[in-house]
Specification:
- This is Dienelactone hydrolase family protein.
- GO terms for molecular function: hydrolase activity.
- The structure is a single chain.
- This protein is α/β, with parallel strands linked by helices and about 190 residues long.
- Helices cover about 40% and strands about 20% of the residues.
- The chain is built from six helices and six strands; from the N terminus they run E-H-E-H-H-E-H-E-E-H-E-H.
- It has a six-stranded parallel sheet with strand order 2-1-3-4-5-6, sandwiched between helices.
- The chain is globular.
Length: about 190
């Protein structure tokens, strides 16, 4: 698979590069665009402030420009938290998208969004302060209405970005389960 993997609000950190390497080792081609121009952050608040400084439209433009040279290949869009939201937006707008792998995040869905049985897999903490139960229920229903084939995996007691070993949220067991399931998902596309 050809995978476009977007980083979280922390920026393009070692955990994102390690995830890309894990995917490459499984036989996938992976791109990890740096939407923050080399900047990384120690806290969510710092990263969100920088994201707000860039602006949502500019961030999305950077993501589209990063994906455009490869979209004809039929990309799987993937991302971590903020990057998952970005991946979701691009996948729902790309008629050639092969799949959507969301780690720790989702995004609003345009009422006009429509896909043809797009395979979607979401991995998220339970509970997650950014992905509440009510939000996820509504999101799931809207994705189904848009035509996506959605699987959701919840990880009780894990922190929001539980796959990043350099953050306090890290949960080794949940992270390894996530990667095992996600690799199976990608192999099935």
């Amino acid at each position: 698979m050809n995978i476009m993997l977007f980083h979280s609000t922390y920026g393009l950190r070692p955990a994102v590069r390690a995830a890309a390497d894990r995917l490459r080792a499984a036989g996938h081609e992976v791109w990890t665009p740096d939407l923050f121009d080399g900047r990384t952050f120690e806290t969510v608040e710092e990263g969100m402030a920088f994201k707000d400084e860039i602006g949502k439209e500019e961030l999305l433009k950077r993501a589209v420009l990063a994906a455009a040279p490869y979209s004809e290949r039929g990309l799987v869009y993937a991302g971590f938290s903020l990057g998952a939201a970005t991946a979701q937006t691009l996948a729902l707008g790309d008629g050639k998208a092969r799949g959507l792998l969301l780690l720790h995040g989702t995004s609003d869905i345009a009422p006009s969004a429509s896909v043809d049985d797009l395979p979607v897999q979401l991995h998220v903490a339970e509970p997650d302060p950014f992905e509440t139960d009510d939000w996820l229920t509504a999101w799931y229903l809207q994705m189904g209405k848009a035509g996506a084939d959605v699987e959701i995996y919840r990880y009780a007691g894990a922190g929001h970005l539980y796959t990043d070993p350099d953050l306090p949220d890290y949960d080794e067991e949940a992270a390894e389960t996530t990667w095992r399931v996600a690799l199976g998902f990608l192999d099935g596309l």
